[in-house]
Amino acid sequence: MVFKKMLSAFGVGGPSVDTVLTNPNTRPGLTLDGQVNLVGGDAEAAIEQVVIGLVTRVEVEGHDTEYAGTMEFHRMAVSGSLVLAPKQQLSIPFQLPVPWETPITDVYGQRLHGMTMGLRTELAIARAVDKSDLDQVAVHPLPVHERILEAFQRLGFRFKHADLERGHIRGVQQTLPFYQEIEFFASPQYASTIREVELTFVTSQRGVEVILECDKRGGFLSAGHDAFGRYQVAHTDADRVDWAQVVDGWLRETTSRYGSLRSQYGASHGHSRGHGMGGMVAGAALGVAGGMVAGEMVEDAFEGDFGDFGGDE
Fold it and tell me: Beta partners for 133?
């Protein structure tokens, strides 16, 4: 009996948890529906709480270091305290609201290279280790996100990578402790001016704030640098405008902020980069955070029938 109690303390012979999502696909502002299925162990178990939470991988930058960690950014209790009898089966239904700022993980059915997202279920058991379960979640773009991403493809930009950076963008109202950066290689028609572009969506119920960071090439008398642009769009604009024309206008406006001479030269100079949050706090240009991650061009890095947004790693 004492041995059995010791095993129970380490979770052996204890209750199990398995979460089943009705549909693992969702969008910002919608919900994730499902049920948490509990099965009692060898002995009666006092469960303090059942909690579900969205978790993802976030890049954290310091002064001279950069590392990635798993972060839970949204959680909800689906049950309070309860007693689970031996071998008892219990299903707890839930409906988890997905925050508007939740990053996009999938475009055209393809996982964005660099993105991870999961729903973690925690079973807090009195005087024992926590039990947990993790289910993969796919967050698809809203219509206005999709139109803007399509516009970049129509303009010839090639998707490079996506990640989440911990921190806040100055002047932008954020509810989550990170922001998504979707990186593109510049298309040939912009290559004389821009190396790469980082796109960030900060979404709310009203619309989307679009932040562009263009890695500009240096000119005859100047070194390369980053140029920033911020634009507001409404969800209702999704099917009202020619997005390729709008995005082209944004790019031209953003890259012309520092004088037209620099756009006339295609000489390649090494570009400087702010150190993540340090660069953000320094408030370069419009004070918008980011920083391009330099990388080699990889031909056909992300293949797929629906464009180059996804692909197997």
Answer: 121
- Rounded CA separation 208/231 (Å): 8
Residue burial 256-266, b: 16+ Cβ < 10 Å; e: rest: eeeeeebbebe
* Single pTM value for the model: 0.77
Q: In angstroms, rounded to a whole number, what is the distance separating the alpha carbons of residues 258 and 225? A: 10
Pair of tokens at residue 235: 């969800």
Q: How far apart are the first and last CA of the chain?
A: 49
Among candidates 210, 158, 163, which has minimal Cα distance to 184? Answer: 158
Q: Quickly tell me which residue has 């549909």 as its tokens.
A: 23
Nearest to 74 by CA among 214, 209, 175, 188: 175
CA pair distance 62, 246, nearest whole angstrom: 35
Amino acid letter for position 279: G
For residues 152-181, b (16+ Cβ closer than 10 Å) or e, as one string? bbebebbbbbbbbbbbbbeeeeeebebbbb
The phi, psi pair for 34, rounded to 5°, reads 175, -165
DSSP at 290: -
d(CA 295, CA 307): 21
Distance in angstroms (rounded) separating the CA atoms of residues 42 and 217: 66
pLDDT tens for the chain, 313 residues long, are: 444 444 454 456 789 999 999 999 999 999 999 999 999 999 999 999 999 999 999 988 766 777 788 999 999 999 999 999 999 999 999 999 999 999 999 998 899 999 999 999 999 887 776 778 999 999 999 999 999 999 999 999 999 999 999 999 988 999 999 999 999 999 999 988 889 999 999 999 999 999 999 986 644 444 455 788 999 999 999 999 999 999 999 999 988 865 333 332 222 222 222 333 222 222 222 222 222 222 222 222 222 333 445 544 3
